[in-house]
Design goal:
The structure is a homodimer.
Chain A lengths: L12 H15 L11 H8 L3 H13 L3 E4 L3 E4 L25 H5 L7 E2 L12 H14 L14 H13 L9 E4 L1 H13 L5 E6 L3 H9 L3 E8 L2 E2 L1 H10 L4 E4 L13 H14 L2 E5 L24 E6 L1 H4 L6 E4 L2 H15 L4 H13 L1 H26 L14 E5 L6 H10 L2 E2 L1 E2 L12 E5 L5 H22 L1
Helix pairs in contact in A: 1-3, 2-3, 5-13, 6-13, 7-8, 7-12, 14-16
Family (chains A, B): In the C-terminal section; belongs to the class-I pyridoxal-phosphate-dependent aminotransferase family.
Cofactor (chains A, B): pyridoxal 5'-phosphate
Keywords (chains A, B): Aminotransferase, DNA-binding, Pyridoxal phosphate, Transcription, Transcription regulation, Transferase
Chain lengths: ~475, ~475
């Protein structure tokens, strides 16, 4: 397996090796029973000493990730070695560049009855009829939309509509400054593959969005997690960290942050932009939730203050109206955007044109009124969930009421046994997101994230009751 | 700018630097008038001597790519320095990892009247009514498809349908061995990002698909182009090359190859697979055209002979029925596939579910009969184009009649002035693909690729006549 070692990094080599392998194991990329490379082979392929590898393996063994035995070698712990398909054993030794895959591991629960894990909005709340009607008309009147690859940058008419939408939110750009992507996940990925390489320093909030962490890890970045308080990322701490390691990129989700729910204050937003200017680096401002406020609109986006093209702003439209259409917008200026378009073309030749055209009339004419209704509905859900928590949450569990967005971020009294709780919940048909995957993974997290908008209201209430009962039982057992 | 230098490679460092920069310039990533880094700065960031950079710049200047002047520095040639947006000048110095973007540069001609450049099928030949009708029914009866992120691996029902389809073509797999991607371009990209890293050796046919070359270049691979004859890639030459540089991956397009049209013989297919087994490496078998034969079906796919999971087989379904839907299938075994699914999740959280469901009934029930008709129609187009070529092609231009696929690969008597021809043609509303972009770019190619299926028949004929007249004029002027 390939591991990007940073010889000038702050962590020792054994630590880097053991942490990367632990990520691969907890991501499921290395499965229980898989054989690890021998100390000699790994040392030779990573160009480190055998002592370094031995130390890393000892560390992994002490955490129970692997078990080693004299003469036989080391294996990923927990289950007996699985039988492999005949002949495909060579694949285990075939090197890859995937250090972490928590997104893959934690978001695909097709059969879960109570899906609290993914931050999404249930179909009953979405304007699917309206978008479906547009889609029907389009395939009848303009079937050629299904034949065309369209423009790599995205449909011009849709970009113009998004442009006007953003202007209404204080972001003044031209349609040529926008690109359409297949969801924000692809936007983050395109920025990373274009501008982040091995050893580049990327700053993120602690905690952060696990899909972004996966992507930056895949580029071999040195990720540094900056603590937050109730005004968002601590920019003073970030400033000091940047003195030592200048940023290549800062990833932030400043509004109703995923997963914590915290909103960055306007003064921090300004200071963050100042910092990016002084270091001539990019900020990725990931903004899925700013339209989903409960009381008052959030502060202006960082992009709205950016005159010099330091901010790549990402807004998912499909998330709020029709997630299955996978349509987001990436706004950036100058040759930052042209390079992102080049990367987009190499990654998929452009997003499906029909999907772009299908969401267009809704965004142009109905989005604002719909968002108003949606906010009310989501606030209702959040309040229902909060009420249940207040009534039934076990002692020692705490949370802040979010001011917007889709998630509750719960702090448990202990990190102990959360993976066991996760398994038990799944057996009951309940999924949640363990906080661990929102951090670098060095220290166990005692948080979990619950999304209150992914089910019908009655299901959400039933599921949450069930979960809180389970949590209570779990906490009594680990106390 | 970031350049992956291979210190153990066969090329000198100045050569590697000048070729990478030439690629960036011809790709349009470095625009006319853009200022290059100073010799001192580039030398320091690449950790090479200033002499090395000076040599590279002299080489670029001798080819007319840049012009340098004492005291002012070096600039990309051809036009005066463009005025930059106020304040965004810092972006020029912001490093990226995009060495080549010929796909971006050469495939986006929204306003061209006679698009011969892209290998695609005109809407009139596609079953858009049938797929549109399915889409209409789905959005009415199952609107929740627009709400769901679906499964990262792709819809199970569609994978089952594809599985049966592949069985009919001699490829016996389970639905769990398949993944759905947004077109084959994404499949190639996922394999590259997962398994290819800086300095890894990737073998390709000479010429090859430019979108694959872009992707492997983006991963910092050492690409080696293997010559072809009328049986496809010369596997004996490849075998010798592998002695010196063992392959990490072999990319091939064995059937009606893009761009050359050549089909690999069955014995070469077998030997190629043997080679992959002995080197424990992957073959990417990109198969867009095997259903589009004119006389007799092509030899069995390499994947159909693969018992040990060495072949990642890619077949685009949407290309043949509805390109705008962007639905392809990637078949691979064991943990090669699971790692690709992890990469897919990080790159876009899965392809749109509605698009997957929309092509499903057609592939299940109508594909084979449709393919039969399509073959006849395409053969008709090809013969029309070939007749025009025979009548009007200037002396010294040669080509082989393809046995299937969408392209004609023309050899001109000289490589001289092809970029000028390209510009002239565009002014007349005609686009073609210059052969240069199908190679590494070291040696000028005297080939061009024309697709005969991307327009209505009458337009294709009119456009081809116009183009051949232009070509005649051009060749007279450069002789």
């Amino acid at each position: 397996m390939h591991i990007d070692l940073l010889r000038s990094g702050s962590k020792s080599l054994p630590q880097q090796i053991s942490e990367t392998m632990a990520q691969r194991i907890t991501s499921g990329l290395l499965q229980p029973g898989a054989r690890l490379p021998s100390v000699r082979n790994l040392a030779s392929s990573l160009k480190v000493s055998q002592v370094t590898v031995s130390k890393a393996y000892a560390e992994l063994e002490s955490h129970g990730h692997i078990s080693c035995s004299q003469g036989k070698g080391c294996f990923v712990a927990e289950r007996a070695r699985m039988s492999l398909d005949a002949g495909t054993g060579w694949q285990d030794g075939y090197d890859d560049f995937l250090p972490r895959a928590q997104l893959w591991r934690n978001f695909d629960y097709s059969k879960v009855e109570y899906p609290f894990h993914m931050a999404a909005i249930h179909g009953d709340l979405l304007p699917l009829d309206s978008i479906g009607a547009t889609m029907s008309t389009l395939v009848t009147e303009q079937p050629e939309l299904m034949a065309s690859y369209g423009n790599f940058q995205g449909d011009l008419e849709l970009r113009e509509v998004m442009c006007r939408h953003l202007q209404g939110h204080g972001i003044h750009l031209r349609s040529s400054d926008l690109m359409i992507t297949s969801g924000t996940q692809q936007g983050i990925d395109l920025v990373a593959r274009t501008f982040v390489g091995p050893g580049d320093t990327v700053y993120l909030e602690a905690p952060s969005y696990t899909g972004a962490i996966d992507v930056f890890a895949g580029r071999g970045a040195e990720m540094i997690f900056v603590p937050m308080d109730n005004e968002g990322m601590k920019v003073d701490v970030l400033t000091k960290l940047c003195d030592r390691r200048p940023p290549k990129l800062i990833y932030t989700n400043p509004t109703f942050q995923n997963p914590s729910g915290v909103t960055m204050s306007i003064s921090r937003r300004q200071r963050l932009l100042e910092l990016a200017r002084s270091y001539r680096c990019l900020i990725v401002e990931d903004d899925p939730f700013s339209d989903l406020y409960f009381r008052k609109p959030p502060p202006p986006s960082i992009k709205s203050m950016d005159a010099e093209g330091h901010v790549v702003y990402m807004k998912s439209f499909s998330k709020v109206i029709a997630p299955g259409c996978r349509i987001a917008c990436v706004a950036a200026g100058g040759n930052i955007l042209s390079r992102l378009i080049a990367a987009k073309s190499a990654s998929d030749l452009g997003s499906p044109l029909l999907n772009q055209k299908a969401v267009l009339p809704f965004i142009a004419r109905k989005y604002e009124a719909y968002a108003e209704q949606l906010r009310t509905a989501l606030r209702g859900r959040m309040e229902k969930a909060a009420k249940l928590l207040k009534q039934h949450a076990p002692q020692g569990v705490s949370w802040n009421l979010p001011e917007g967005g889709l998630n509750l971020w719960l702090q448990l009294p202990t990190a102990s046994g959360i993976s066991r709780l996760h398994e038990l919940a799944e057996q009951e048909g309940i999924s949640f997101l363990p906080g661990d995957v929102c951090y670098s993974g060095e220290v166990p997290s005692r948080h979990i994230r619950l999304c209150y908008s992914q089910m019908k209201e009655a299901d959400m209430e039933r599921g949450l009751r069930l979960f809180l009962r389970l949590l209570d039982k779990h906490l009594s057992s680990v106390r």
